[in-house]
## 1
Amino acid sequence: MHQAKDRFLLKRLVLAGCGVALTAAAALSISLLSGGASAASEKICLTGSLHFDYRSAESGPEKPWQTRPVRNANVELWGREGALGSARKLNTQALFTDVANGGFKACYTPERSRAMDMMWVRVSAESSRLWKVTNGKGATFTWNSPIQTAVSASRSLGTRRPRSGDMRAWHAFDTGNELWWKRGNPKSNCWSARETDDNECTELTMQWVSSAPSGTVYDPQHNTVHLTGDAPDSEHTVLHESAHFLQHRLFGGWFPQVTRCIRHWVDKASSETCAWTEAFADSAAAYVLGDYRYVGPNGIPISFAHGPTYDDGDTVQGNVGGSLLDLWRNVDGGTWNRTIALLSTHNISTFREYFTLRPTAHLVTDDKARQILRNHTINY
Ligand SMILES: [Zn+2]
């Protein structure tokens, strides 16, 4: 978007999976109770919460620091019962950080003794297998709690924070919730109703590389949003790029042949295909966040209201994005869900095609709808 490059990346990426290796310090060994079977084992839980600090581009160019819980992230409990075995993942059911406060609670009942040699909690910047944030090497960002040793009763770990250098990854991850919650798919947990098996959803990968100038690209070949530098400071930017993925999934893996789109601006003419796909991403971000603008990573907003700097017509993404938002909010009952359903059943290359197809999704194209478009200099 804007000053950032935003084009489809075709180069092949090598994603090497690697986990965080923890070196376990020698721990106190726990003396086993003789005839351990007679000792009633009790459940041991580690509780706490994970919050992250972030710079908020949505709050203005000074980007003040704010704090928020990490919501909906995968939680694992790791550890070992005896001093000699190797640590392993202990939980068998999926656990997530709490949506309200980033809280976690992970429990395990020792099998042979009354205590665990060591235990710790791992939170990943991934939610189920629906979206995740990886580093430049393709490893998912994780936070590991301090290792607890000789754990014979439940412990509270308090409110914790990820490494300061990882905060932007957690901000991007948490922002992913906002789009997933509003994806408008009544058929499955997947991003698109074209995918109906909850175990086979296409996952969105956001790859964030800190040591690069601010930039954003969606790579459809790998379902990957690339974010560099301070790009995650802007939730509009994270959501805009993620919405390219969403539209790609709504179209079932198809995407329009987009022209004249290597550089494009909200208020300037590009092409019908560029304006349509970029406007969908712009308006998705604004719809999800409940506003009427795009905010770049520098904290500078631009409104979708047609203004003096704007070019005219449906090759301008701001004109199309403003029209989409106005239709959803003022004609379509305050929701984009029927538009989402329309995109889940038709492959659409331009806004004109979309508008023409609206009646098939029981959406109007009457005088009121056309007047909304005229307010954005689009005359159909
Ligand atoms: Zn874009």
Note: The mean pLDDT is 90.
## 2
Amino acid sequence: MPRPGRRVVAIDLETRYLEALDLPNLEVRCLDIATETAEPSSFDLVHTRAVLVHILECAQALRNMISALKPGGWLLLEEPDVVSLTSAASDPADRDSMAKTIDAIVQVHLSAGADPYLGKRVPTLLRERGLTEITVEGTALVSHGGSAHAQCLALTVTKIQDILLETSRVSRAEVDRFLALMDDPDHWFMDCVMVRACARKPGG
Ligand SMILES: C[S@@+](CC[C@H](N)C(=O)[O-])C[C@H]1O[C@@H](n2cnc3c(N)ncnc32)[C@H](O)[C@@H]1O
């Protein structure tokens, strides 16, 4: 909720849910951050969560976000890294089904030019672009089947399962087992690490 006297601009390619918010001081814009920029040098804070990891032109998107910051403004990036995404099942076959499904997801992303390991690279990307006062932390949730995180993973895999099978790195039976694990409240797994990096644009 924007504080009185503060202006918040919420940017996304898909603004359907943001439009429904109708909050004072909140402006919703449909904009592709890979190709367009908000007003240069205008914002005290630019924040994204789990956005750059989906953008092939991630470097350009980052440049556009930095350009929108006022000198001395802060950039807060929260981006996942798939490195920790593993099953804690007792049955090795279950762990294997999850590992192979995740491996297929990783391969699909890598071959499309996206980086599912982006999280760990975020501090380096900020340093290379001249940002200062970088602080970083990472959190990996341990979650279980049926949780919101598990449902999100299951929806993603259900949507792209044909593409995953085409990689030949996972079988139909293993994908089905993965989906069953994501629905099983007794199955625990470690989720992606969410890396949070905060840094300052020089000047100001
Ligand atoms: C995984 S969702 C994260 C949503 C939200 N930030 C959160 O943490 O719950 C990724 C979001 O990035 C948006 N997105 C992807 N590419 C984009 C682009 N080039 N420009 C602007 N938004 C983009 C998608 O529309 C989607 O809403």
Note: Residues 11-14, 32-34, 49-51, 54-55 surround S-adenosylmethionine (CB under 6 Å).
## 3
Amino acid sequence: MSDDMADGEDRKFELPASANLMKAAAMGECPRCGSRALFKSVVSFADRCSSCDLDYSRFNVGDGPAAFLTLAIGTVLAILAIVVDQWFHPPFWVHVILWVPLTIGMVLYGLRIAKGMLLIVEYQRSAREAGSLETGGTRLSPGEDQ
Ligand SMILES: [Zn+2]
């Protein structure tokens, strides 16, 4: 039906739209089976999927999202804090109870989404490049050295 599936390959997966990708990452859905087993805590991946046994440790997401997210969130929150301070002149404790939890929450939730999205995309790209070799126990991560 869709044109990108017309090349004759037997694909079990498709790259989702970015909204679906973001939702899947936020919910911690396994890129292979879709069960919510990707994270063992807010931002750290589980070792493997509890449903389909996909090994998450072979994907190297790295710390790239952390630095970028921290800078972006820090910029947005600093601007917001300045605007709030100039408009409402709140006491200092209002800033503390407003910005500290907001910063922590945004960084953790942003990291979860970014790391989850990277792992899902890495799984899909690797699986796509490897074709149907997934059953052979071969590594799927293209950036991984032995
Ligand atoms: Zn799974």
Note: Confidence is low (pLDDT under 50) at residues 1-11, 132-137.
## 4
Amino acid sequence: MSGEHRVLLIISGGIAAYKALEAIRRLRERGVAVRAIMTRGAQEFVTPLAVGALTGEKVFTELFDREDEQDVGHVRLAREAALVVVAPATADIMAKMAGGHADDLATAVLLATRSPILVAPAMNPAMWAHPATQRNVAMLAEDGVRFIGPRRGEMAEAGEAGFGRMAEPLEIVAAALDLIAAPVAEGGGRLLASRHAVVTSGPTVEAVDPVRYLANRSSGKQGHAIAAALAAEGAAVTLVSGPVTISDPPGVRVVHVESARDMLAAVEEALPADVAVMAAAVADWRPAKASRGKIKKDGSGKVEPLQLVENPDILATIGRHRTLRPTLLIGFAAETSDLIRNARAKLKAKGADWILANDVSEGSGVMGGDDNTVSLISATGVEAWPRMTKVEVATRLAERIAEALAGQSEAAE
Ligand SMILES: Cc1cc2nc3c(=O)[nH]c(=O)nc-3n(C[C@H](O)[C@H](O)[C@H](O)COP(=O)(O)O)c2cc1C
């Protein structure tokens, strides 16, 4: 291997297989040697000839190959990889991985390797959303497999949109390079192995009567992505979520709540933790009295004014907690004006370590959208992050959390 890093790329039989060619080129440009295994399905989409021309090496396709078993063989292929990347990963290969199958070269290598595994799923949105696929993904995440994507967007098949599009080749390459560079420690090199994280996400809803409530436009996408990113780095994550329409992230314990008071109780129950990220849009107020019966029109044209009372402040309550305050407490400040000044004030008032400030004014597209522009505000300054997807914000935040916790552990030794 002449000291260089070697990625073993497993291409399975999805329509996105053509994008694997681009990933190979990009990895090689960055000095990474790539060896490829193609499933039988993959060979229906791209040829071993094209893949081999780009890797500059023989492409491996068969488990029972006399020559290879004497020469390379599946165990050696598994052992010689610094990282195994499955891109595109079909629903089928993920099911086999989750079940521990080894009936072809790709799955045998995936079972035999001790190196980190990065999976880039690619499939039709219905296949991705299917409970069987989600179960397999959760199981693989628990086994330490890392995921990149899938992304939301137009699929290669006409007329299909939703989650299932493979991450772009350059994103896969960046994730692969990160994993190769990461020191492989206990927990398969995962940065947050043995840490406990609590994340809140989504809106809270506050009952007016049995059928009506006050709520807000939070989708939960950012909080859920953070929970998933922390879990992907090996943390045990409890996600306390208000009512959302998106699915529970894989590999995370989820507690579903409705009101701010329920959310606070669930967070306190989930603590202690090394880190808490309060990303939920908690309602500041609730109706002073939720009517037991449905409030009816009385025909007079008069409307009873809605009396509101303040909800508990979850971030401030946890920030002041003498025994339960996490080592690292992170809040979100959704503002429509004076972003940084308000976020700085919030940092102090709530006793948080960091505030992620985001502009949610009309036209920003943040509430409910897939992108976010945040600034990380701490006692030492303001860091403005460029606009990126909520998943990328989550990945970056997970890395920053890992650094901060590692720094604190060192300081304590
Ligand atoms: C035209 C066509 C496109 C396909 N695209 C996908 C895909 O994007 N994702 C997926 O999971 N399966 C896709 N499949 C189904 C897989 O090819 C099939 O499940 C196969 O058994 C996968 O084998 P493998 O995982 O061993 O490569 C597609 C099938 C066809 C015929």
Note: Residues 12-16, 39, 41-42, 90-93, 122-123, 127 surround flavin mononucleotide (CB under 6 Å).
